[in-house]
Amino acid sequence: MQQTVTAARVACLGEPLVLVSGDGDAHPAGAELNVAVGLAALGVPAGLIGRLGADEYGSLVRTELRRRGVDDSAVETDPHRRTGHYSKTTGTDETGERTTTSSYARAGSAASAMGPDLLDRTAVSAMLDGAAIVHCSGITAALSDTCRALMCRLLTERPNISGVLSFDVNWREQLWPDADPAVVVDLANRADLVLVGADEAIRVAGTGDPGQLRRILPSPQTLVVKDGARRAVAVDRSGDTTEVPALRVDVVEPVGAGDAFAAGYLSGLVRGEDTLTCLRRGHIGAAATLTVATDWAPPPPEAVLHRLLTCSQADWSATTVTAAGFALPEGM
Fold first, then answer.
1. Measuring CA to CA, how many Å separate 218 from each of 164, 180, 215, 234, 237?
2. In the chain, domain spans
3. Which class is 7-160 in CATH?
4. Looking only at Cα atoms, what is the longest distance across the chain?
5. What is the pLDDT averaged over residues 11-38?
6. Taking Cα atoms as reference points, which of 84, 36, 38, 89 lies closest to residue 60?
7. Phi, psi (rounded to 5 degrees) for 132
8. Which of 58, 47, 46, 102 is nearest to 82 (CA)?
9. Which active-site residues does the annotation give?
10. DSSP 115-178
11. Which of 155, 230, 264, 278 would staple 282 via disulfide (CB 3.0–4.6 Å)?
12. Using one digit for the tens of pLDDT, what is the confidence trace for 250-270?
């Protein structure tokens, strides 16, 4: 049943994908789609800007977006190109840590044909103009030359954008086999908010240290460095930092956790909350997604969410998360 959709407070621009599992099941996916779905689940009106093929996967994505309350009015359908999709396999590395390998089929997809002129479409312009936050990622720039030109125009000219421009680095080596990561660093430095994992920051910028990254990316208002199971650190232009340790999680599968973190953080930002609360929201979203095999998970019940956002640092650090849910300390 279709939910009522209100004007998007957060507009997410990127490629909608379909995740195809080994048993043939298919689920909507893609970094920016994951963020939009996560925001909608948190009660934040969200919309997606992108392109789908006129195929079964495209219909699946559009139906699911509407069911989850995501505005798809700026998602175009290409009658000639297919919807991108991917599969993933899980395993363990030499240390026993769980790993995921993704295999993409997105070359020549409908979204790969996006270009700078997409931003002039009536539906796209309207969504950008009405959004308090516009969220995008480095993945889109890797899809094609025209997509790279789209991202350059978006982040340089900011057409119809008066709100915060958010950029998740999302470095994917398999999409950039011969590319210079300086391209993504340059795009990131044009945004207002940058989110990056410490591990990918090392590969892209040569360091995962928040202070050193802040010097490499001086322009954004806020830089958020996600350091896996350890912590997340936000650094503003003046160098002031806010750090929140990650929750302890029994990890099932890691893909999608970064997108869930972004959705959580942005849900706090659009509500005008302080940085510490935004970081906690990010960790909560990531923790929930780490306990499922799909790319997103429902947020915890409202009462649990409120307790986690307002508890002491000691109680926060004592909370554990499993597939059964969030286990808060006794008496919280």
1. 16, 20, 5, 13, 7
2. 7-160
3. alpha beta
4. 59
5. 91
6. 84
7. -75, -30
8. 58
9. 259
10. -GGGGGSHHHHHHHHH-SEEEEEHHHHTS-HHHHHHHHHHHHH-TT--SEEEEE----GGG-TT
11. 264
12. 988 888 899 999 999 999 999
